[in-house]
């Protein structure tokens, strides 16, 4: 059975707290698993969340600050220890390859797995598969940072009333889906476009064009909201977003489910992030993330 959900492994920015681990997010997308930004402690959080090394197919790193990448060494070694039988691809900013290499080979271990590196150096597709395209878009942070966006191809939704009107039934329904035409009736006559789902992952960044491009029309947007709105100046200075800014982006982009995360340890009331996001006018589904949370991707429209 296909599953599309976000498994939150960690939600702290800069330093972990007693209640929040460093960053780490697994997107389960049907039979694949995409691990985003494995911060320190990710391997243990995977264990607590019931995520195995065998569940991983891709690792996507937005940038090489420690809270987003220090867990890579442990994850890579666990992949090799468990002898994951399939290829795993790692995406990361090409400018940070020296950091990736240091983390990949931080200590001695026996390599048993095909870990393919696919560095990102410009906006555009990072991977294209039959079930989705993974795009990378540059963001604005003191070090080079990219956000990621997964786009499912559009499909078609069969319309029972039109099928009946054209006398298409039984095996011919499957046939017209495969062949496009049955007895002079075209697929377009008995179906409509079903928009593919879209998921975006936006971490450390100021407001910039890339944030809006990644969020546009997403079913689920996972986005940093390091600061509350009263600390907007700090957010701009350090290259981050506030809860209100993130929610405004989501509202303007038509996001269906907004997931706020990457919280500064200076704040003790997570409900304030939700209050400020709502005050910014976002009316869709809203989650203020906490560690080990599972968030289903919204069903297709």
Protein topology:
Blueprint: E1 4-10, E2 24-29, E3 32-36, H1 42-49, E4 58-60, H2 66-69, H3 72-81, E5 88-91, H4 97-104, E6 115-117, E7 124-128, E8 133-138, E9 146-151, E10 155-158, H5 160-165, H6 171-179, E11 181-182, E12 185-186, E13 191-194, E14 198-202, H7 209-215, E15 220-224, H8 232-238, H9 243-253, E16 257-261, H10 271-279, E17 285-288, E18 294-296
Parallel strand pairs: 3-4, 4-5, 5-6, 14-15, 15-16, 16-17
Antiparallel strand pairs: 1-2, 1-18, 2-3, 7-8, 8-9, 9-14, 10-13, 11-12
Helix pairs in contact: 9-10
Features:
18 strands, about 25% strand, about 300 residues, single chain, alpha/beta
Describe the structure.
With 301 residues, this protein is of the alpha/beta class. The chain is 26% helix and 26% strand. The chain is built from 10 helices and 18 strands. Strand 11 (181-182) and strand 12 (185-186) form a beta hairpin. Helix 9 crosses helix 10. The chain is globular and about 65 Å long. It starts with a strand and ends in a 5-residue tail after the last strand.
Rounded to the nearest angstrom, the distance between the terminal CA atoms is 19 Å
Q: Give, in order, the helices and strands.
A: EEEHEHHEHEEEEEHHEEEEHEHHEHEE
Rg estimate, integer Å: 21 Å
Structural class assignment: alpha/beta
Average pLDDT figure: 96
Strand content: 25-35%
Annotation, overall tally of beta strands: 18
What is the general shape?
A: globular
Share of helix, binned: 25-40%
Strand order across the largest sheet: 6-5-4-3-2-1-18
Tally of alpha and pi helices = 10
Low-confidence runs (pLDDT<50, min 5 residues)? none
Q: What does the main sheet amount to?
A: 7 strands, mixed
């Amino acid at each position: 059975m296909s599953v599309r959900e976000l498994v939150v492994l960690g939600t702290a920015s800069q330093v972990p707290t007693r209640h929040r681990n460093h960053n780490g997010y697994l997107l389960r997308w049907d039979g694949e698993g995409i691990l985003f930004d494995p911060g320190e402690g990710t391997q243990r959080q995977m264990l607590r969340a019931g995520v195995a090394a065998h569940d991983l197919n891709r690792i996507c790193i937005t940038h090489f600050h420690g809270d987003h990448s220090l867990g890579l060494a442990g994850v890579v070694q666990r992949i090799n220890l468990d002898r994951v039988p399939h290829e795993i691809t790692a995406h990361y900013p090409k400018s940070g390859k020296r950091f990736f290499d240091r983390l990949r080979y931080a200590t001695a271990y026996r390599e048993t797995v095909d870990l393919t590196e696919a560095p990102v150096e410009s906006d555009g597709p990072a991977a294209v598969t039959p079930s989705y395209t993974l795009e990378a878009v540059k963001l604005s942070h003191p070090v080079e940072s990219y956000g990621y966006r997964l786009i499912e191809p559009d499909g078609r939704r069969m319309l029972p009333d039109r099928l009946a009107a054209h006398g298409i039934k039984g095996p011919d329904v499957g046939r017209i889906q495969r062949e496009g035409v049955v007895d002079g009736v075209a697929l377009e006559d008995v179906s409509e476009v079903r928009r593919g789902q879209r998921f975006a992952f936006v971490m450390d960044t100021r407001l910039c064009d890339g944030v809006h491009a990644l969020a546009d029309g997403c079913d689920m947007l996972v986005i940093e909201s390091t600061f509350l709105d009263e600390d907007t100046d700090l957010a701009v200075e350090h290259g981050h977003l506030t809860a209100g800014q993130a929610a405004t982006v989501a509202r303007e982009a038509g996001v269906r489910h907004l997931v706020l995360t990457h919280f500064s340890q200076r704040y003790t009331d997570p409900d304030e992030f939700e209050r400020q996001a709502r005050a910014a006018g976002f009316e869709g589904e809203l989650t203020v993330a906490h560690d080990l949370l599972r968030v289903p991707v919204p069903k297709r429209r």
